Amino acid sequence: MKEIRKNARGILSVILIAFAVLSGYFFYAIYAYGTRWFTTPYNTRLSKAKSSVIAGDILDRNGTVLATTDSEGTRTYPISSDARKALSHVIGDTKANVPTGAETFLSADLLGFSSGIFDRASQFFAEKRRGSDVQLTIDADLQTYIADIFPDEDNGAVAVINYKTGEVLSLYSKPEYDVKYPDDYSEKEAEQGVLINRATQGRYAPGSVFKIITLACALENIPNVQERTFDCEGVYAVTEEMDLKDTDGEGHGELTLKEAFTKSCNIAFGQLALELGEDKLRATAERLGFNGNFLFSDLIVYESLFPKSIGDEGELAWTGVGQGKLTAVPLHFCMIAGAIGNDGMMVEPQLVMTVTDNAGGVKNKLNTKNYQQCFSAEINSVLQEYMIATVEEGTGKKAQVEGYTVAGKTGTAQVNSSGGAYDPHAWFVGYIDSDDCPYAICVVVENGGSGGSVAGKLAGKILKKATEIVK
Amino acid sequence: MDNRRKNTAPLKKPDIDWILLAMALFEATAFVLLAFYNGFDAVALILAMGVPMLLVAQVLLLGRAFPHLDKYILTIANFLCGIGLIVIYRLSPEKALKQLLFYGVGVILMMVMTAMIARFRQWSKFRIPLMVLSIGSLAATLVIGKETYGAKNWIDFGFFTLQPSEFVKVALILCLAMDLSEKRTIAQLVPVGVFAMGCVGLIVLEKDLGAVLICFLVCMTVYYTATSNLLLVLFGLLGASGGAVLMYKLFPHVQTRVAIWKDPWATPEDGGHQIVQSLIAIASGGVLGSGIGLGSPNKVPVATSDFIFAALCEEFGIIIGLVIIALYAILFIRGMLLAMRARSSFHALLSVGVITALALQTFMIIGGVIKMIPLTGVTLPFISYGGSSMLSCMLMLGILQGVSIIVGEQDESQWRMARRRGESGL
Questions:
Q1: Structural domain span for residue B219
Q2: Predicted ipTM?
Q3: Contact with chain A for residue B323, Cβ under 8 A
């Protein structure tokens, strides 16, 4: 009998542990995925609620109303048509064709699913319930300005965040669509994925902006790498079939590590990647969020991808300079640049500032959450120094902003397409080194040409505007 | 340990009247809200009185009449039945009335079972008939049964349908406890071993995966409790895992099931439909729920039986979902305490068997509905709609209460004896 008693106790322990795990998983799953499950197009409750509930307003950080519902129940956008188009991906349509847009992803608030007991009670006798108003962290003026100066012929994306708080100031994606006429786009635009918000979901070849990660990995794993010099002749044979080339092919001559970074020398960084090996490179990349699963509460952000396996040495060398099978998401790279500005700490992006229910209750949704300490203090200060030098004297000179210290890295990503030769994607990622204007930026101009002269120049203008208008 | 004290002091009867009152009020409020939500509904108003009355009356009257009943177990089980009725009524009043009938019959069955366990001493007489009836009914299901959701586990009697595997579960627990409490040599265990394997085998043929898993693991657990033979149990589990892998390789529908579990969103309107809608329902309710009558739990497939937990979470909120998980945990703790206090191994093994079966079933269906584990179609004990399920749960509840009475009486007589001894010592 003693045995039986002991065994019964053991079985009870197993049962209780299993139920503790069950409750824990239940709580975690809802916390992490609840909004994502709720806002899928398969949730018929949303479309039902849209006919029975008046959706709340969407405002920008300065209180400008971006979307509201008029007395007849139709959704209207009381901003200029340029602003409306610029902000369409952020607002999102009411039919959930842009599932990452605020109209859909924040519908729990807008349609009043998340409103409190008092709000519900106060609307008990109302003919039609009304949802809560949502104020975004987006600066509508800044985003309209970005749309205005973005190269007319090119597509691309821009992300601007406050890297200390995580507030997302702009998420611009081109080709634009018009939220007022959500079905009104050409077949060609549909093919290009006009409804995708490229700032959060676009996966591009990163090119040389990835050298930030190769550099961080080298600083972490190779002792005294800063004292090294590299000899660049413009071409370097990795294997018999695969040469590593610089963009212009002229050769940089003898370089220190810092010069190799500011001049964006492929030869030096390809060699570093070969020395590090794919495992170390992958480990650093994954620590920064590559191949991860971002579950931010306010917005959907796709993760950048580092290949699961790299074929040969040639591909490894190219991966080290940001080519190969790497893909990068603009907002993610904006967060990486921001982390460097924020002493190595990456913060979660936040899109919702306040939620105001009908009873007048204002919920402040801004609470800065640390995502990941990306770099140690020493390594981070080297990264800062190199990125500042890149803008001061290297490839990123065009991104300078008068009166501020800007740090950054340019990228000119080769795109191979069967359709023939395309211009490379122009990249700039960087941040303003300032306590008053702690803004990080990522600019991608598809097939835009040189990173420094196209993306860098654009980034400089946008950052300057941001320092002037963002409050 | 101070064994003497533990054995002689009668367990303090806890005062749970205020919890009972809260539970009764919860049920009454829910039915009153249902009565006035979509126009006036008199039936719901009657239920608002009746269902809490059933709960309170049972706990107070039965508890008074049989002081050794476990009030915690009785209260929790009846409250869970009540919650089930509320959710089912909200989804389909017609089904709820049927369920109420089963609940009533179930309460009578429970009392009969309680009395039998507590008073009837010659269980070995039932051994052979139970085994024959179990095997017979399972075999009959295979021949004349009807298929739902891929499993052939129902017998249709026209005016009602029966799921024999639910009752075989109870018979299995009784037979295992009988034989394993007395006979210990391998040779003596052959009949019950063959019986157990026969049951599991036949349910495998019915393709009722959930029931297979429950019966098999109940056998293993009761066997382990009785013999402490961990080696054989591990061997058995290993064999079963091998069998599971084999089934996965052989049967495409098992592969589909696992694929759906891994990523239901890949087939949201097809194979993954049930899980996807379940997750959406839970997420739509949020922490506090939409409020009764204000959600759309009818969007969840099979919302009254397998997916009732999702329907419940949508309108009552995750918070009530967690409370229900906690109530089950308390029920299992109380049941296992009975096993630990029992003086005969038959009664200890009975409790272990019942608790294992109920806990497994609860874990499997809640885990499946929230996509923690692959879904196996079993009911949520006491809550889900279904006559066979309700009756078998009530029978198991009766077993627990019977054991509770025996344990209580033993404790009390020992305490009296000890006190007498103490008095004469003075």
A1: 14-425
A2: 0.91
A3: no
